[in-house]
Amino acid sequence: MKKILVQGKTQGIVLKSNDPINFLGTVDKKTGIISDKNHDLFEKSIKNTILVFPSGVGSSVGAYTIYSIKSNETAPLAMICQKADLTVATGCALANIPLITITDEEFSSIENGMKISVDTDSSNPIHYQ
To answer: Which of 3.20.20.70, 3.40.640.10, 3.50.30.10, 3.30.70.60 is the CATH number of 3-128?
Structure first.
C-alpha cells in the first residue's frame, strides 16, 4: 500500500538504487553525487531525479543532509522508498521533498530511467509515463 508522508507534485526521471542510502555518509551535500564506492549509485547524481530506494540508514543527522542538499539545489525532486525511516521522513519534511512509501511489488516494477509523475493529491499518487 502506498503511503504519502510528505505532500507534493512533480515529475522526473527515476534514479533507482537497490541499496539503502545513508544520506550523511554517502551523498555529497554540495553536488548531490553519491560518494560511497560500495554503493550501487556510486558517482551518480541524485539532483533533479525521482530517487527510488529501499530505505534510509544511519544517523539522524542525515535529515540535515537532506535539508542541505535541498538548500544547495542538488536534491531529488521526490523520494519513493519501501520503508521510510525517521531520518528520511524528517529530512524530506524539512526540505519539502515529496515522499511516498510503496510495496515491495511496486518497488520491483520501477526501473531506472522511467519517467514518473508524483501528485500526492491524486487518487493514484505515482503515475508512470
So the answer is: 3.50.30.10
pLDDT values of the chain reduced to their tens digit, one per residue, 129 residues: 789 999 999 999 999 999 999 999 899 999 999 999 999 999 999 999 999 999 999 888 999 999 999 999 999 999 999 999 999 999 999 999 999 999 999 999 999 999 999 999 998 899 988
55 a catalytic residue: no
Catalytic residue among 59, 108, 109, 122: 59
Global model pTM greater than 0.70:
yes
The H or E element spanning position 80 is strand 78-83
Neighbours of 2 (CB within 10 A): 13
